[in-house]
Amino acid sequence: MFTGIVEELGEVIAVETLDDACRFRLRGPVVTEGAKHGDSIAVNGVCLTVVEHEGDEFTADVMAETLNRSSLGALTVGSRVNLERPMALGARLGGHIMQGHVDGTGEILERKPSENWEIVKISLPADLSRYVVEKGSITVDGISLTVVDAGPDFFTVSLIPTTLALTTLGIKQPGDPVNLEVDVIAKYVERMIGDRATGEGAAR
């Protein structure tokens, strides 16, 4: 489990393209401290497994399914990425519960800066819109954010200076893709209500 509180901005050091996958080498001094083979690290909101670790760098394999369902396939050498280690049992939940399982991708539509914050408008796939509500939580590139406005095919978030300075949302521009993960609790509630309405829950 992750909380969507980005620990550091990492960097893609190398990309190796395989037949049906990719291997990324990433640099992140904070998240690699004490890291070992098999550990999980969220990269732009995608839970990846550490394959190798040396110094402040680690490698992770990304299969075709993940490349197709996320924006990781657009990463190149030099790309900046949001990095977060899994939450520790008993630690404070600073953001909201997230799994690192991307539900889809959106696109930065526009940015409206102001003196103390910035409003960012992001496109929303039609099949995810029912999970996004005003003042609800959503994960964008691994960042736990609060929805300001929710439309049928877009939503907006308000970014404070800290988020702009310490995450990829400070540098992404209109047209750039972002990973989206909706509230997992909403998905479970929808499934349970649907089963109850159809009687499937009683049959199991």
Automatic annotation (TrEMBL):
Q: Which InterPro entries match?
A: ATP_synth_asu-like_sf, Lumazine-bd, Lumazine-bd_dom, Riboflavin_synthase-like_b-brl
Q: What is its EC number?
A: 2.5.1.9
Pathway, per Swiss-Prot/TrEMBL?
Answer: Cofactor biosynthesis; riboflavin biosynthesis; riboflavin from 2-hydroxy-3-oxobutyl phosphate and 5-amino-6-(D-ribitylamino)uracil: step 2/2
Q: Which Gene3D superfamilies match?
A: 2.40.30.20
Tell me where on the tree of life, at the top rank, the source sits.
Bacteria
The Lumazine-binding repeat boundaries are: 1-96, 97-193
Lumazine-binding domain residues:
1-96, 97-193
Catalytically driven reaction(s): 2 6,7-dimethyl-8-(1-D-ribityl)lumazine + H(+) = 5-amino-6-(D-ribitylamino)uracil + riboflavin
Note whether Repeat occurs among the keywords. yes
- Which terms are listed as keywords in the entry? Repeat, Riboflavin biosynthesis, Transferase
* Described function: Catalyzes the dismutation of two molecules of 6,7-dimethyl-8-ribityllumazine, resulting in the formation of riboflavin and 5-amino-6-(D-ribitylamino)uracil.
What protein name applies here? Riboflavin synthase
